[in-house]
């Protein structure tokens, strides 16, 4: 028997932090209240309608959408992305359990199953928690009586009298299923959310969810591996039972671990108090030194003040004596009254010297002391920096180093670091970063605590440089900061798409991977046979492939890798109204005049008289990047050939009608030109001979997943 009060931790919704109410199962296998799912989706829709304003976040008192999610919504609302007819619409839902954006499919919330098992367990928990509170009859006249049973077919509770009235003998209702008093009414048959009239009778092993026969015949699960519901039930129940039996058999081991953890908790409490006391003593010593320095500085300032006041006071008294009938002047006036020459001369000689000094001081007045105390300003800049880095003794803990090759900036920032080989690794790392801004005088670092040696940072500003540094902690020990590394974000929001496997896709010459993120040209035996039949000219042509998502407005960036062995690859953008012409009018590659920006010097400069084209393609190959031949391009062919970056990026600005080609490693623009963006623009690629292109994958954090072995 399981104590129902011991599992309340599993019965709390991650969104509202309350007991589940009509929980729904998300594709990531987390459960969320039906009401919470709707409120989160409504908050997202309101944010999109209001342009991502934070005021729309106040609509629900239960749910709070994070600021990072609001920033992501704001960028999506301004992106202007459109899917073509081959791409179905989908609904993204930010799961509060795993913090990932979950695709709910075309049906959205209507395609989710209700977790009746979890709902039943929650109801048992509620009943155990409120055993003294009775469930009242739904049909009694006031005052209602306590119910004695609940009808699962009517979804209502009854007292004995009302049950007899509403379920008379000899009627269909008399056959209804009834149970003890409950507020949890679940259907007898689980129906398919996509085909509401069909019951689920199969289990999809790929999607790990129940499906009906229509889902298998023509729905999303047509090509998936399915099994019968009874087989899935038996297999899952056997696996779960075995796992539970194993855990129960290790009960003594679990208790031993709990005892050990309790001892460790007490030891941590004791050691932390000791560490606090030692740290307090260290800071008291430092504080005592500062107090002594403070007292000495204050005493010096006070002594200087008194000396200056004394000098100025004496000078003021001397000048006070220069006034008529006062001081020195008054005394001199009295001496002038002396009529005896010998007595006058005896006194006037010394007095005359004093009068001359007073006259000279009056002509060149200068205070006897300065009023400023600039000499007593304490310079603490260096000490402040040292105190800012004040930490626990490293004691052999190595300084981590950020690995710039493994770190990358795309839709998010992935920062990875390493520790010196023979040094102890830290228990936890603190990563700090800030945006480089020349206008800001002071730097404010943002801090993230990480338990691993890499982390993902979302919601960084586009077209900006950021500085990163990391340090490690092991218990109370701290390492110094690593060397600062500066990385730059893409010039525009990242545009996500896949290779289109339907529109113009040549399956004989091109090979797509199952995820449609890589394409490879197969220059094999069929191409040689076709070329052998041609006696004049060249048979080989470019094989084109486009992205499955178009761009109508805004500024967007995407990146990809071109294999080093690739002979000829063209990359760029093309307007939607030129796609059919592109696929049906392929040209001979031996005539560069057909490719207006092929990168080869054909001697035809008039091809560029129209500066704004509905498409732009740049040539890559043999580990080189060819700047197209334009009037503004260098005349020397060698200066138009650049080394091919390991990762190439394209930035399309529909509003300004420009497309740029970037080294995605350092976000440096290699070439930019104008393009006609009056139609919907699509990423375009072309391959010839042996070549391969891999789309840059989005930066995602690694999450532990539960894998089903059915």
Automatic annotation (TrEMBL):
The chain positions of domain Fibronectin type-III read 399-492
- Coiled-coil annotated spans: 258-285
Residues of the region (Disordered) are: 51-72, 590-610
- Taking the first listed entry, what is the main subcellular location of this protein, grouped into a coarse class? cytoplasm
Kindly give the Gene3D superfamilies that the UniProt entry links to this protein: 2.60.120.920, 4.10.830.40, Classic Zinc Finger, Immunoglobulins, Zinc/RING finger domain, C3HC4 (zinc finger)
Q: Which Pfam families match?
A: ANCHR-like_BBOX, COS, zf-B_box, zf-RING_UBOX
Q: Where in the cell is it found?
A: Cytoplasm, Cytoskeleton
**A GO BP annotation:** spindle organization
Q: Where is the composition biased (Basic and acidic residues)?
A: 594-603
> Which residue ranges does the record assign to the B box-type domain?
187-229
Which Gene Ontology terms cover its molecular function? ligase activity; ubiquitin-protein transferase activity; zinc ion binding
B30.2/SPRY domain segment(s): 477-708
Q: Which family does it belong to?
A: Belongs to the TRIM/RBCC family.
Which PANTHER family does this chain map to?
A: E3 UBIQUITIN-PROTEIN LIGASE TRIM36, E3 UBIQUITIN-PROTEIN LIGASE TRIM36-RELATED
What's the protein called, per UniProt? Answer: TRI36 ligase
Q: Which organism is it from?
A: Aramus guarauna (Limpkin)
What gene is this protein a product of? Trim36
